[in-house]
Automatic annotation (TrEMBL):
Pfam families named in the record: Thioredoxin
Protein name in the entry: Thioredoxin domain-containing protein
Database matches in InterPro entries: Thioredoxin-like_sf, Thioredoxin_domain, Thioredoxin_H-type-like
UniProt organism field: Urochloa decumbens
SUPFAM superfamilies with a match to the protein in the record: Thioredoxin-like
Domain Thioredoxin residue range list: 26-114
Length: 122
């Protein structure tokens, strides 16, 4: 099963849709990196207030661009230390746009202007 089929259809009801995929394992992350379409990562933590504020704009962007990209939430508390180090996440939230397996754009913090730049490059 591809990551795309895990991202969009909701398993509980055929008319529901996931808005973004939550990365829980390193395998999930590898699947996301290998996708042919762009991938937008949001590195986040539940305890961080800025992350809570930016989840709605991330969700809105995912809804608007769901056919052009895959959106993934990476919880930094979820034992994904290698991924956090690979993408040099030093502040939360951090948004990363990946195309063809390579980082293209990055936005750090609760900055709507930077998030719009990522959205414009999808």
């Amino acid at each position: 099963m591809s990551l795309t089929s895990n991202v969009f259809p909701h398993p509980m009801a055929p008319r529901w849709w996931w808005i973004y995929y939550t990365i829980k394992t390193a395998q999930d992350f590898c699947k996301a990196e290998e996708q042919p379409q762009p991938v937008v990562l949001m590195f986040s933590a539940d305890f961080n207030e800025a992350c809570k504020v930016m989840k709605k704009p991330f969700r809105d962007m995912a809804l608007a661009k769901k056919k052009q990209a895959i959106f993934c939430l990476v919880d930094v508390d979820n034992k994904l230390k290698d991924i956090v180090e690979k993408y040099r996440v030093e502040a939360l939230p951090t948004f990363v746009l990946i195309k063809n397996g390579k980082e293209q754009k990055r936005a750090v913090g609760a900055k709507m202007d930077e998030l719009r730049i990522i959205e414009g490059n999808i």
